[in-house]
């Protein structure tokens, strides 16, 4: 059997009074036979700001400077440091990453900056490591060797690749086209076989 609740001014004032006394919402729900959404609406109606969970220093799990997870620190910085329209380093691209400046990961907004992906990779040294670990390509008389067909071809026979030291993709355009064709032909065949069953 459900109880029908009539929301009179006296009823609403009772809810507000209990809330201001610090009684948890779940207990107010049971006492007044109502639900959370209605309580929030009553609070909003009376211009009382609902403070849901405790944030920052008031939260029981707050670690302050002793934060152990970088993701937690990054999300805290993301919520407190406004995101600019452009990268703080190059001022050209849209920023995607929060980069730590000192490498110490302190809870300090000024120790982080918003960077585009390429500037972040350059500052971290990831781009340099990527270029150093990629396989070396043979070059003869300004011709580059394709890693697939092993032919020596001019630079314009390769697609661009910024992550590589020489700036071009490791397979020539002809091999890439052939591999893509093989891949899509196999996919077509698989789909055809799947639908014919």
Structure description:
- With about 200 residues, the protein is an alpha+beta fold.
- It has three domains: about 10-45; about 55-130, no CATH class; about 135-195, no CATH class.
- It contains seven helices and seven strands; from the N terminus they run ααααββααβββββα.
- The strands form three sheets. The protein has a three-stranded antiparallel β-sheet, with no helix packed on it. Strands 1-2 form a two-stranded antiparallel ribbon. Strands 6-7 form a two-stranded antiparallel ribbon.
- A hairpin with a 6-residue loop joins strand 4 and strand 5.
- The longest helix is centred in the last third of the chain and has 24 residues, at about 175-195.
- The radius of gyration is 30 Å and the shape is elongated.
- It starts with 8 loop residues before the first helix and ends with a helix.
- About 10% of the residues are buried.
- The model has no long low-confidence stretch (mean pLDDT about 80).
């Amino acid at each position: 059997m459900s109880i029908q609740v009539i929301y009179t001014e006296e009823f609403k004032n009772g809810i507000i009074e209990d809330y201001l006394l610090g009684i948890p919402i779940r207990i107010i729900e049971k006492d007044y036979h109502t639900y959370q959404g209605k309580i929030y609406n009553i609070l909003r109606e009376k211009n009382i700001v609902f403070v849901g969970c405790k944030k920052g220093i008031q939260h029981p799990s707050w670690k302050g400077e002793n934060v152990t997870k970088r993701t937690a620190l990054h999300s805290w910085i993301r919520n407190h440091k406004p995101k600019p329209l452009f990268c703080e380093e190059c001022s050209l691209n849209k920023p995607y990453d929060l980069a730590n400046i000192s490498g110490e990961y302190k809870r300090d907004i000024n120790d982080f900056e918003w960077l585009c992906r390429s500037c972040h990779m350059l500052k971290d040294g990831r781009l340099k490591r990527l270029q150093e670990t990629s396989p070396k390509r043979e070059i003869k008389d300004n011709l580059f060797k394709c890693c697939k067909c092993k032919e020596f071809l001019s630079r314009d026979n390769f697609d661009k690749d910024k992550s590589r030291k020489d700036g071009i993709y490791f397979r020539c355009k002809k091999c890439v086209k052939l591999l893509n064709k093989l891949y899509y032909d196999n996919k077509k065949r698989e789909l055809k076989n799947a639908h014919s069953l």
